[in-house]
Amino acid sequence: MTAAEPYFDDLAELYERFTQVRDAATSPVRSWLTAQLSTGARAIDVGCGGGNNCGLLADRYDEVVGVDISQKMLDIASTKPTRVPVRYECRSATDLTPDRDGQFDLVMSVNAVFHMGPAEVVLPTLRDLVAPGGRLVIIDVTQPDDGAEPREQSAYAFETGKIVYDVSGDVAAAVDSIRMMLHPRWLEMSAQAAPLSETEFTVQYEKALPGVRITKNVIPTMSAAVWDAA
């Protein structure tokens, strides 16, 4: 995961523009996410980026931690006001442990897990951070299960731009998302971390998180999972 750090540092401003659309109040991603949240004492957003979802958690939890490997993304996050102070830490997801960090009533990750490493390593790490009675919520990029070869990055970029426009009606945001996904640094990073297919997503998540509830196509190219700890 540490290899992704310089990529997101270089892409911080473009990625922040992209997430402002994804995390807008009217976005289907935000609507789905909000419906999964309760209230509680402690919450953590792993791969928090610019901190938009940390603000969402801070409205519901008394202590919020945001973890990301990009310091530039965390610098953006730290400028945003929240109901309770958010503690931001520049760390890898796989460095998190219950012994060091404790457990959380809510563990969340949005659009980040496939960057963190193999699902069979990352998902148990996140699962172990969930306190008894707590919840793990993940939204991640998935590839379609059509048996075709993976899409060319240029085609995927324009498809994503269309999704951004359909969600927001914001032409500039759609163009920025295309610029980001065709940026040389994004292309380098994408070559190192391919998303799971929809079937692979289901298989891997059901194996690591027995009883998980999966939602496909929260928006096109994104699937979601909710797992409740006993």
Describe the structure.
The protein is of the alpha/beta class. The chain has a domain at 22-145 and 194-228: Vaccinia Virus protein VP39 (Rossmann fold). It is 46% helix and 25% strand. The protein contains twelve helices and eight strands. It has helices spanning 5-10, 12-22, 28-36, 52-58, 71-77, 98-101, 113-116, 119-128, 153-168, 171-181, 184-192, 198-208; strands spanning 40-46, 61-68, 86-90, 104-110, 130-143, 196-197, 213-219, 222-228. Strands 1, 2, 3, 4, 5, 6, 7 and 8 form an eight-stranded mixed β-sheet that branches. Helix 2 (12-22) packs across helix 10. The radius of gyration is 16 Å and the shape is globular. The protein starts with a helix and ends with a strand. The model has no long low-confidence stretch (mean pLDDT 89).
Number of strands: 8
Order of helices and strands: HHHEHEHEHEHHEHHHEHEE
Write the CATH fold name of the domain at 22-145 and 194-228.
Rossmann fold
Ends: how far apart?
29 Å
Strand content: 15-25%
- Approximate helicity band: 40-55%
Please work out how many helical segments DSSP would assign.
12
Unreliable residue stretches: none
User: Which CATH first-tier class of the domain at 22-145 and 194-228 would you pick?
Assistant: Alpha Beta
CATH architecture call of the domain at 22-145 and 194-228: 3-Layer(aba) Sandwich
User: Which structural class best describes the helix and strand composition?
Assistant: alpha/beta
Averaging pLDDT over every residue, what do you get? 89
Query: Rough shape?
Result: globular
Write out the CATH superfamily name of the domain at 22-145 and 194-228: Vaccinia Virus protein VP39
Please compute the radius of gyration using only Cα atoms: 16 Å
Largest sheet: 8 strands, mixed
